[in-house]
Amino acid sequence: MALPLDVQALVERAQSLMRRVTARSSSNFKFAFLFLSPAQRDALTQVYQFCRVVDDIVDERPPGAEGRAQAEAELAAWSQEVAHIYERSGPIRTDLGQALAGTIEHFALPRYAFDEIIAGCAMDLDITTYPDLESLELYCYRVASCVGILCIGIFGDQSELAQRYAKHLGLALQYTNILRDVGEDAARGRVYLPIDLLTRHGLSEEDALRCTYDRRFLAMAQEFHDIAESEYQKAWAELPNMPNLRPLLPAEIMGRTYHQLLAELRSRRFDVFTHRAALRRRDKLKVAAISLALTSLPLELPGARAVRSVLA
């Protein structure tokens, strides 16, 4: 039976976005894939595609009221798709939805994480600035921490400790992205740095949009760096008490890769306007080696808890 025209349009757009998403997945993401089983790789690819699809619905919408209405309709369609998967209350209309249904059942992934990711992307329809860290944290929790919670479910650990780890690591990664992408976001008319943080250092939203780079920016960037660093340390503080870290190896590779990116930003005096931070292949291999060593230590091994604390 033919689908209604509006539904058919949503399906076709979702499939088009999926093809583009797969082509532009990051090299860091692919590197972590090396340590996953084929089933885990497929599942993580689907989660990543879902995130990019709903993000692109907002970021690549046509301008004006018509574009907003289109984005709202497409986000609502994905909310309905998630509901149909979990509630078995209606047909699953997209190829990605069909694939996710099997993945969700196999890995017992929590519904709230998908709903929160959609809600986070919807925030970008109305919000271009965040008044303080608390409001930014809600956004980052939705678009990053909830992705992490789905990922650790795929990796094989859905314990309370692992979920706290994922929450803080997700915030840390997103804060690192925000600091790295200040210039790119400004070109899109967005300022993710908290306005009260800018104000404390004598900067305004307009300064951020103009990509002002001076001693005020350096002081502000250092404070935001420290906020991100704090989230990395909160995530790693959970590791010494986990009985089995091996399922978290891919997450550790991603986390420690982005921690190195944060260090590079600082070493370049936060010049995010003329240089995009990136790691060399040998640096990625070093990160992978440290992560593998950390996650391979059995907790019952004498001294393992102390070594984990040092590596973390």
UniProtKB/TrEMBL annotation:
Keywords, in A-Z order: Transferase
EC number: 2.5.1.99
Keyword Transferase: yes
GO MF term set: geranylgeranyl diphosphate synthase activity; squalene synthase [NAD(P)H] activity
Enzyme class label: transferase
Transmembrane segments: none
Example GO biological process: carotenoid biosynthetic process
Pfam families referenced in this protein's UniProt entry, alphabetically: SQS_PSY
Family annotation (PANTHER family): BIFUNCTIONAL LYCOPENE CYCLASE/PHYTOENE SYNTHASE
The protein's name in its UniProt record: All-trans-phytoene synthase
Origin species: Enhygromyxa salina
